[in-house]
């Protein structure tokens, strides 16, 4: 974009590149030290997904694995604060319920 007031778009792209680099290093480490005994989510994804399994998809295996791991990690960390914020907001907007609680 030709106009990025405040630099938010530039900062967002920089942060995404950093996060993508972290996930790529994590993925590369798992590829180098694969074990059939102590498997975590990344190892299972590497076992299940291969180029043949996603041949009809427009993305490569690394992109799918990194996106899935990021989604699970972000989803697990944001859920609780969001629910608590909504609960407090609903209680404050409904004082009669707040008195019962």
From TrEMBL:
Molecular functions per Gene Ontology: heme binding; iron ion binding; monooxygenase activity; oxidoreductase activity, acting on paired donors, with incorporation or reduction of molecular oxygen
Protein name in UniProt: Unspecific monooxygenase
Record-level GO cellular component terms: membrane
Organism: Opuntia streptacantha (Prickly pear cactus)
Location, primary (coarse class): membrane
Keywords of this entry: Heme, Iron, Membrane, Metal-binding, Monooxygenase, Oxidoreductase, Transmembrane, Transmembrane helix
Stored InterPro entries: Cyt_P450, Cyt_P450_sf, Plant_Cytochrome_P450_Monoox
Cofactor(s) in the UniProt record: heme
Subcellular localization(s) per the UniProt record: Membrane
């Amino acid at each position: 974009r030709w106009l990025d007031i405040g630099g938010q778009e530039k900062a967002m792209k920089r942060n995404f590149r950093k996060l993508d680099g972290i996930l790529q290093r994590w993925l590369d480490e798992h590829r180098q030290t694969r074990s059939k005994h102590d498997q975590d989510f990344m190892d299972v994804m590497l076992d299940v997904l291969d180029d043949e399994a996603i041949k009809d998809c427009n993305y490569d295996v690394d992109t799918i694995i990194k996106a899935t791991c990021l989604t699970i990690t972000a989803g697990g960390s944001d859920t609780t604060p969001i629910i608590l914020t909504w609960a407090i907001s609903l209680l404050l907007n409904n004082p009669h319920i707040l008195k019962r609680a």
